[in-house]
Structures are given as C-alpha cells and as structure tokens.
Design goal:
about 100 residues; two-stranded antiparallel ribbon; 4 helices
Length: about 100
C-alpha cells in the first residue's frame, strides 16, 4: 500500500504537501509501533497509520488544546479515538514482567 498516495487522496492534497504528509505518516508509524510494542507496523494496521496521519493533519494548529471554539462551532479533540484504540489493542504484544 502506498500510504502517501492514499493519504493525499483522502485529504485532497497535491504533491507540494508531500514532505509534511511523509512526516505525519512517519510519526503515525512510530506511534503504532510504540503502542503495540512491535518493531514494524503489521500489514493490517497500515490503514490505521493513514487514519492517524490524517487525524494529525486535521489537528495542525490545535496542538496542546483539548477543545476549540470558533464562530459558534466547538471541536473537542480526543488524544486517541476509541475506534482506533480498539484496532491497535488487537495487535498489541503482551508484556511479560518477571
């Protein structure tokens, strides 16, 4: 899967945004690997990586805010939506403490 091409299509962006989108995809991959405890992103989670990157793109400029209100429209920002958390949890490696 060409994650960059999929992300650009979803967001309706052109090639001039490629560096930013590549950074967001890389950050999303790192997040998925850290959350699941894996050294690489499993194939079933590639779509989740794209979804996380799209979410981060939509939140640009809202870093550090938990909610935002403008022109009578209020937006609440979840750190990680439950739908994504559920998908990631299915691929999480168990930790053994000894």
């Amino acid at each position: 899967m060409d994650k960059l091409a999929v992300l650009k299509r979803r967001l309706g962006l052109s090639a001039e945004q490629d560096p930013l989108l590549s950074d967001l995809l890389s950050d999303a991959e790192m997040y998925v690997m850290a959350y699941t405890g894996r050294a690489a992103v499993p194939t079933p989670l590639e779509g989740t990586v794209v979804e996380l990157a799209a979410m981060q793109y939509a939140r640009l400029g809202l870093q550090g805010e938990s909610s935002h209100q403008e022109g009578g429209v209020s937006i609440t920002v979840d750190s990680l939506p439950d739908s994504i958390r559920q998908v990631l949890n299915r691929h999480r490696l168990a930790r053994v403490v000894g």
